[in-house]
Write a structure and sequence with these properties.
single chain, alpha/beta, five-stranded parallel β-sheet, flat, 20 helices
């Protein structure tokens, strides 16, 4: 309803300004301070005071007189406060919000008939996913979720770097060394933990072996790279033997978050189909192409980029970026928009990529990049798959579940709800809360800000963390269960919203009304952390309602009881769908 009210306010203001022959380009619409009982306000009187030759409060009063509230559905009253016009909600605003909120899909926007591919994670398939890279799948998945909720047709892609030197080294090492050559046991019984030992052994060999042995190994590695470049099918199959096994294990890890993908797009695809070579040929024909030390490069200084983009090495082989150019042109051919989630160390590459795509004649307005900073642990060290150092994402998730289990068990005696949790229930809640804590703590912060993951904050049931907002959903489920409705049961929707008159009830309804607009703005800005901020605000509003407005107490009138039950159901749908966008599970009991 907030979106509809905002549209009404915009139309009403534009009409009033047009009647007074005033410009309508800046309506000054904003959300008022908390102590103002309005849904929206306008500061347009400030801008027009000089033009109208009157003080801002007088301008505001004149504009208010030009708007007939009787013509509006969701604006019940317009007040002026100094230079501001304040738009207060009507009874219909609250009634329609309550009715809309009782729909399980509440918050999802209509289909936009626009396809979007979201590429995220895309970690090199050289071993287990480490903590430092955990932000990519979590943020990427949430970006895809919020776009999906906003009505876009979304596909989630993982771009597999299976043609670079790292994979050539991995393939050579896997074929060269035996189990007996390896110095350690796998840290987990999963394929990527087993195979990463070959990769680490190969890199150690290249660092420590004598010059003749290293030269022989490098010749074999170069032959693999050259074979891929030439489209040699046998070389391709050798590399994929390693890539597919490692990816299988990485997918199992990522599914724990969960982060699922519609397609794993391999860069060798764009070598085998000739599109990489075709891109390189087109680049050589541009006025920006220069040949330096045998390598073909693009001079992008005219576009504000000082570092040249190398697109063909002196031996004629392509680079990752060359193949990614072909990859992105494929995206533009098949999707209306392309969103890529990247680490902050890829900013230059992303800038060069966009400039080059534009140079090749592509509409880069369809391209968006989101850059994120790393995740650190307190006292954590640098991460390196090649050296075998760092903390793996699996370890973080295991510890999160263990800590959540301890926290849940410690609270068992203080639980108000008597639903007889057994061991399986505790384990389920521990997974929901533990993994939810990791996801929420990461996605709730702006991607460009660095994160140091703190256990005490992430698992604090009282602070603004995942358990804090998850508990609101569990509370809603408890009330519905006690009322005999149950989660997902039929709730009475033909209720009188006018009976919800307390400040806490109206505040909660106003917060619920904002949810679809939050989804819309988060999708427009590609900022899922806005949804996380909303869940905290929503939790505060619901908790105030829970404290002040009993639902099932004996002294509550039956009609009020039904209206409040409908409000609880709307609250459950709002929180469940907000958490779903963030990729955080909504426990029915905690």
């Amino acid at each position: 309803m907030f979106r509809s009210l905002r549209a009404e306010v915009e139309t009403a203001l534009e009409g009033a300004l047009s009647t007074l022959d005033l410009p309508t380009d800046d309506l000054g619409i904003e959300e008022p301070p908390e102590d103002v009982p309005a849904v929206l306000a306008s500061s347009v009187a400030f801008r027009l005071a000089g033009e109208m030759g009157a003080a801002p409060p007088q301008v505001a009063a004149q504009l208010a007189e030009e708007i007939d509230v009787d013509d509006l559905e969701y604006v019940g009253r317009i007040d002026t406060q100094g230079p501001y016009l304040n738009f207060l909600p009507s009874d219909a605003y609250f009634a329609d919000t309550l009715a809309a909120g009782t729909d399980e899909t509440y918050g999802h926007l209509p289909d936009r008939d626009t396809s979007v591919v979201v590429e995220h994670t895309s970690a090199n398939p050289t071993g287990p996913v480490h903590v430092g890279r955990a932000r990519n799948p979590i943020v990427g998945d949430a970006v895809a979720n919020v776009l999906d909720a906003a009505g876009y047709d979304v596909e989630r892609h993982y771009y597999v770097n299976d043609a670079g030197r790292q994979m050539a080294v991995f393939t050579w090492a896997y074929e060269t060394f035996d189990e007996s050559d390896l110095e350690s046991e796998p840290e987990r019984d999963r394929i990527e933990y087993d195979l990463v030992r070959y990769y680490q052994k190969g890199n150690a060999y290249l660092e420590d072996a004598d010059d003749a042995a290293v030269e022989e190994a490098e010749a074999e590695i170069q032959a693999i790279l050259q074979g891929l470049e030439e489209g040699n099918e046998a070389t391709f199959e050798r590399v994929q033997t390693v890539v597919d096994q490692v990816l299988g294990g990485m997918r199992e890890c990522l599914s724990r978050l969960p982060a699922e993908f519609d397609e794993f797009v391999k860069e060798t695809r764009f070598m085998l189909d000739g599109s990489t070579q075709e891109v390189a040929d087109r680049l050589r024909d541009t006025e920006y192409a220069v040949l330096e030390e045998g390598a073909w490069q693009l001079d992008l200084e005219e576009r504000g980029i000082e570092k040249n983009l190398v697109f063909l090495r002196s031996d004629g082989t392509s680079l990752y970026t060359t193949r990614d150019l072909a990859h992105h042109e494929w995206k533009f051919e098949h999707y209306d928009r392309a969103v890529t989630v990247l680490g902050e160390d890829h900013k230059l590459q992303a800038t060069q990529l966009e400039a080059t795509l534009d140079l090749l004649g592509n509409d880069t307005d369809a391209l968006d990049s989101i850059h994120f900073s790393w995740v650190n642990l307190p006292g954590g060290e640098g991460m390196s798959t090649r050296r075998g150092t760092g903390i793996m994402l699996d370890d973080l998730l295991d510890e999160a579940i263990d800590r959540a289990r301890d926290e849940v068990e410690s609270r068992m005696d203080d639980r108000i709800r008597d639903d007889d949790l057994d061991e399986a229930d505790v384990e389920r809640i521990a997974h929901q809360v533990g993994i939810g804590a990791v996801r929420y703590d990461i996605v709730s912060k702006q991607p460009t800000k660095g994160i140091t993951f703190e256990w005490d904050q992430a698992l604090d049931f009282e602070a603004q963390s995942a358990p804090y907002v998850q508990y609101v959903h569990a509370r809603c489920c408890g009330i519905l269960d006690e009322a005999g409705v149950g989660v997902g049961g039929d709730i009475e929707t033909d209720v009188d919203a006018d009976l919800l008159t307390t400040e806490a009830e109206r505040d909660l309804l106003e917060t619920i009304a904002r949810f679809p607009a939050v989804i819309e703005e988060a999708a427009d800005d590609l900022e899922p952390h806005q949804v996380a901020t909303f869940t905290r605000e929503f939790a505060e509003a619901f908790n105030a309602f829970y404290r002040e407005c009993p639902v099932l107490a004996d002294d509550v009138e039956p009609d009020v009881r039904e209206a409040r039950l409908a409000l609880v159901a709307a609250s459950r749908h709002t929180m469940a769908n907000a958490l779903a966008v963030l990729g955080v599970e909504a426990p029915e009991s905690m």
